[in-house]
């Protein structure tokens, strides 16, 4: 069995074989999606010179050319170091995604006119809602975890019901219940508070199990040592247990925040002016729905990348004690 140490293929035969395997999906993609109206043939003829014809044979020639180019590129890439391979591959796939977006014949002038408003109003609202919701979800999750581990039957029942109900009912249903259901019993809730409440309650329920497992991962001997030093249970939890548990809690909590950022698009259905609401209403009114939806997807993507970088730095900070 071949060793893939350090992500580098030192032998030409191994590199050639894996390069062909990696290039095959590219060739299949080109064969499946190359247009048959002659435009792709003209592009290839301008780039390469030979008359490639039109229709079916365009796809055949394009597949062969794409396979050769992709194999050569993969062969060179496989000889690079692991980190370089990772960055180049990520960048290549990102360019491929942008190329696919570009194939929709978008109106870039329209996108550039609408982008500033989408960012300063929609993106700011999305981040604002998500940030407040994750803070409240953190409080709900910590309270739920403590309740479920309290050893008091009533609190365990409350914590169990909270996690069961809010994890078992879809976020969109919760949002409608808060925004449209509460007014029927006399409580009027504005769109923004309704959105924050629904997001924080639902994600707090998911995060409750993350907090519980993180706290329980700390050895019971930590509690016993703190008792021997005369520390109160609350002080032990704040100063000894929780700081150690955060190392386990932070990574999945960061993933929940990124998921919440994307799920916040659901709040557009109650009139919150987030990214999705502005993209949907603006695009529909101007008959440019595809332009706005693709722009919104890229904005969400960039925000998620930024959050991933922040999460990685936080994980490194709390994981310093594990590095030698």
Tell me, briefly, the overall form.
Answer: flat
- Using only C-alpha atoms, the radius of gyration works out to 26 Å
Query: What is the helix/strand order?
Result: HHHHHHHHHHHH
Question: Uncertain segments of ≥5 residues (pLDDT<50)?
Answer: 1-7
Reported for the largest beta sheet, the result is:
none
Helix content: over 70%
Q: pLDDT average, as an integer? A: 80
* SSE-based structural type: mainly alpha
The termini sit apart by 31 Å
Q: Into which percentage range does the β-strand content fall?
A: under 5%
- Helix count, DSSP H or I runs of 4 or more residues: 12
Please count the beta strands (DSSP E, at least 2 residues each). Answer: 0
Q: Could you outline the blueprint of secondary structure elements for this entry?
A:
Blueprint: H1 12-33, H2 39-48, H3 56-78, H4 82-102, H5 108-148, H6 153-168, H7 171-181, H8 191-216, H9 220-228, H10 233-263, H11 275-285, H12 289-318
Helix pairs in contact: 1-3, 5-6, 5-8, 5-11, 5-12, 6-8, 7-8, 8-10, 9-10, 10-12, 11-12
Essential attributes:
324 residues; single chain; mainly alpha
What does this structure look like?
- The chain has helices at 12-33, 39-48, 56-78, 82-102, 108-148, 153-168, 171-181, 191-216, 220-228, 233-263, 275-285, 289-318.
- It has 324 residues and is mainly alpha-helical.
- The longest helix has 41 residues, at 108-148.
- The radius of gyration is 26 Å and the shape is flat.
- The model is unreliable at 1-7 (pLDDT under 50).
